[in-house]
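A reminder from the course coordinator: this example appears on the midterm review sheet, so study it carefully.

Given structure:
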């Protein structure tokens, strides 16, 4: 049989009312490519020609973006490849509310222009009263660039040799700082830097002292580092990059610095990410002395690093709103996770599933070395590919696929999850010619 000749033509398929409606919702390009994929499957005999329209309809994406929602079952709370912090429901709704025209720099009461994102900035200062003022940029790297450019251009940034951090994907903070025109004045050694080392480097060219939290590695053994309190006595501005964005101390992560404590200890400026432990959108937070924040805000570069209304909306809702998914994951009760794993495994016995203990981690976002007791559903390693294609990303460990439940939202219905797993496996078995 010649499949090629029987495959319906593209315009004939696109005339199907369901696909015509989809064009209005998703745009012609997306619908057309779904049709082309279905036609190709018919040509190689995987489906029958009469089913092309049905298959195309069934394969349409839910949204007009190639970004797909993913279930993070890796056990890594802040997974860089999966978009770091998942937004809270409150933040998602705020993003939707701000998506159209919105009063991001306009006072509806007076009709006057206002400070952009005033609500988000006020929320940050209210949540962290140790900060006199706040400013928000694109990410923490941008926050450091702005601070270095505005305060230390053509001057020196004094930094410990133990804090010359590569943040990932080949990006190194020292290179980033030097790219602004500031000069680095390295002090101390990899394992030990004391206050006297900083003091000896002070001079007329000093822009500021920078302390960077080693958020993705640990140095153990014969070590010393000076505290923010000691650095605050040096008489020059002290900027502290805390990394993860905790505004207040988090008891479960005693080693993670938080903005309030660091500012109370005398830091002049704190920089942090919005999408790590704060649990919000990608953003760079700058918190601290009002005069310094104002200087950053007025610098020409600030305009190039400014965030959009969606970020401001999500950030404000994250700070003002209920506990974030990241905080929930951090605090999830290990026994409840175990119970859930047992229940899920029971319903997946045909898939050789079992409930196992697991160790979850905060991830590149902070708290290196911290182990969070967790539980996982263990499945055959052959499930890795089909589940990943269906947007369920687990972790391969000792020849098994583990779905770690600490990072799977508690609100996600288990029956739903099981349905998705079963459909993914069935679809995996049906894949032949593509
Ligand atoms: C993650 C991190 C950064 C980079 O933050 P982005 O928001 O990804 O730009 C910088 N410094 C520290 C200490 C970090 O942990």
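Designed residues:
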């Amino acid at each position: 049989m010649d499949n090629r000749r029987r495959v319906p033509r593209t315009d004939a398929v696109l005339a199907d009312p369901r696909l015509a409606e989809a064009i209005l919702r998703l745009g012609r390009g997306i619908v057309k490519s779904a049709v082309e994929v279905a036609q190709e499957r018919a040509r190689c005999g995987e489906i029958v020609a009469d089913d092309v329209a049905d298959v195309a309809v069934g394969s349409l994406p839910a949204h007009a973006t190639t970004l797909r929602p993913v279930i993070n079952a890796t056990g890594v709370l802040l997974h860089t490849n999966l978009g770091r912090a998942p937004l809270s429901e409150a933040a998602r709704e705020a993003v939707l509310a701000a998506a159209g025209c919105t009063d991001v720099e306009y006072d509806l009461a007076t009709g006057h222009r206002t400070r952009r994102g005033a609500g988000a900035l006020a929320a940050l200062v209210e949540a962290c009263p140790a900060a006199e003022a706040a400013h928000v940029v694109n990410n923490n790297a941008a926050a450091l660039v702005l601070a270095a450019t505005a305060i230390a251009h053509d001057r020196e940034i004094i930094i410990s040799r133990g804090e010359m951090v590569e943040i990932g994907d080949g990006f190194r903070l020292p290179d980033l700082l030097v790219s602004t025109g500031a000069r680095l004045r390295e002090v101390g050694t990899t394992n030990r830097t004391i206050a006297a080392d900083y003091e000896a480097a002070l001079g007329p060219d000093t822009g500021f002292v920078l302390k960077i939290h080693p958020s993705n590695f640990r140095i153990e053994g014969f070590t010393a580092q000076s505290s923010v309190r000691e650095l605050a006595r040096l008489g020059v501005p002290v900027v502290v990059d805390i990394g993860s964005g905790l505004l207040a101390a988090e008891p479960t992560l005693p080693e993670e610095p938080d903005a309030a404590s660091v500012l109370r200890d005398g830091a002049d400026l704190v920089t942090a990410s919005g999408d790590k432990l704060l649990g919000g959108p990608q953003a760079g937070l700058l918190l601290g002395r009002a005069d310094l924040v104002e200087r950053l805000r007025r610098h020409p570069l600030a305009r190039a690093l400014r965030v959009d209304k969606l970020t401001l909306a999500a950030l404000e809702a994250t700070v003002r709103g209920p506990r974030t998914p990241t905080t929930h994951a951090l605090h999830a009760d290990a026994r409840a996770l175990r119970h859930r794993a047992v229940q899920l495994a029971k319903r997946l016995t045909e898939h050789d599933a079992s409930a196992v203990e697991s160790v979850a981690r905060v991830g590149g976002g902070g708290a290196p070395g911290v182990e969070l007791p967790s539980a996982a559903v263990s499945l055959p390693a052959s499930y890795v590919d089909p589940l990943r294609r269906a947007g369920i990303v687990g972790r391969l460990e000792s020849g098994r696929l583990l779905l770690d439940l600490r990072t799977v939202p508690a609100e996600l219905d288990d029956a739903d999850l099981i349905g998705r797993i079963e459909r993914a496996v069935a679809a995996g078995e049906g894949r032949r010619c593509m």
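The longest helix spans residues 414-430. The CA atoms of residues 41 and 353 lie 32 Å apart.
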